Amino acid sequence: MKIVIAPDSFKESLSAMEVAEAIEQGFKQVFPDAEYRKVPMADGGEGTVQAMVDATDGKIIHLNVQGPLGNIVPAFYGILGVAHNGHKTAVIEMAAASGLHLVARNQRNPLITCSYGTGELIKDALNRGIRHIIIGLGGSATNDAGAGMLKALGFSLLNHQGEAIDHGGAGLIDLATIEDSQCHPHLKDCQFDIACDVDNPLCGPMGASAIFGPQKGATAEMVTQLDAALNHFATIARPHWNDHQINNMSGAGAAGGMGFALVAFLKGKLSPGVALVANAVELADACKGAALVITGEGRIDGQTIFGKTPMGVLQTAQQYHVPVIGIAGSLGDNANAIINQGMTAIFAIIPGVAPLEQVLADAAINLTNTSANVAALINLSLPLKTQ
């Protein structure tokens, strides 16, 4: 019997691989002779790099880069252990170099925060011979439409005096020309896949500034200023577009407009995060011939069906008519929505009321115990003896 274990991480507690190992430990108590295939998963957000590196026996690259406020911060990205069309693949979480968690709450100001560090991660990967890069857009501190990233890759963003514009979203309003003669020579040879799970355009009432600016520290006045700056940037950037509708494209406003820059300048392709991860870690191949797939995340609720890992795993497994069970840290409002989508059953691992710190610390043992109980229930599907 082949059992596939494909969970997301349990945030602030266990990585996706640690979750998979705890589930395996529990199931082996009941089915010691089963064949287990652990496939750590993610949806393009935090934990994506670690999950994909673990799933493919890849490696993590650590380096110091420019943070959102210009200070030097430690960052990382992953190189996968499997090839893509004959080339190595790098996986980058934008938040690793340009994330909101890198800026103290009282210093958050999207007028000046910059995505330069993300560009440095891309540049390092290119210098190592990487020609396929997956970028997860989530948790950014920036609203500069990827301008900082472009600068790090050698693009010149100049004002009317021929000088480099200031970093940050506000500086875009001074942009007059964009020159690419000095950009990294291997950009044209690299395929960019972008994990994006929002559909916001670059500008307007549903754009990057209006929807995501406030959580990055923008006041109402800043939102108006930033939106005008992004619109100006898009106008100046028009000669670089393949499609004059890119600024209105679904996802262009992701990560403060980073989605726009990756498509317009790097010819990237936007896709749901969990689909990109599933493809890269070859989840479909793992599901072929399986008797059961187990997935999960820290919390399953009504939002899980909208692009979260358990939903992506369910959709993959359904292609091969394999039943799926979800195991989560907790179950929230409308958790049964995923049952309505075809998942067989869902379980929470918390055995009783306890402080959050204890719940997080006990996650592995609670996960193993719950998994053993789930396996025991499955074992009951065998014919029962009658008295």
SSE diagram, text form:
Elements: E1 2-5, H1 16-28, E2 35-38, H2 48-56, E3 59-66, E4 72-79, E5 89-93, H3 94-98, H4 116-127, E6 132-136, H5 147-152, E7 156-158, E8 177-179, E9 191-195, H6 208-212, H7 220-236, H8 254-264, E10 269-271, H9 273-280, H10 283-287, E11 292-295, E12 299-300, H11 309-318, E13 324-328, E14 330-331, H12 337-340, E15 345-348, H13 356-361, H14 363-379
Parallel strand pairs: 1-2, 1-11, 5-6, 6-9, 9-10, 11-13, 12-14, 13-15
Antiparallel strand pairs: 3-4, 4-5, 7-8
Helix pairs in contact: 1-14
Q: Any overview of this molecule?
A:
With 387 residues, the chain is α/β, with parallel strands linked by helices. Strand 3 and strand 4 form a beta hairpin. It is 33% helix and 17% strand. The protein is elongated, with a radius of gyration of 22 Å. The two termini are 29 Å apart. It contains 14 helices and 15 strands. The strands form four sheets. It has a six-stranded mixed beta sheet with strand order 3-4-5-6-9-10, sandwiched between helices. GO terms for molecular function: kinase activity. Keywords: Kinase, Transferase.
